[in-house]
């Protein structure tokens, strides 16, 4: 392939991966799995997972769970829902899996987070709170060549 053709293919591949990432961002509360995401862009699940990881530094499933946990953090900070209600509202079907993943990403259980977050964010504007309280993780890997071929 010529350099120009290779670059054009690379851009098309990145556009497909952005579509997947945008779908996760939009539909995080829906039942999503890698197979459904891959079907949406006409790729195999394994191929999508590998390309997504190369482009963004984490698997599609991990990215989905991060989005769910970020939304759960915002809901828990409000304090008007139980942990179970938040779990199901963000699209998780298992309270145990939700709590485990939440604890891994945030460093404390959802219940403890709800108690602590209300004290830590008192007086902060919502946009500052979202930035400060975002879970720490490797969201995007350094730019690398991604090929879906």
From TrEMBL:
Keyword Transcription: yes
Pfam family, one: HTH_18
Domain HTH araC/xylS-type: 18-116
Keyword Transcription: yes
Keyword vocabulary terms for this entry: DNA-binding, Transcription, Transcription regulation
Name this polypeptide is given: Helix-turn-helix transcriptional regulator
Biological source species: Actinomycetospora straminea
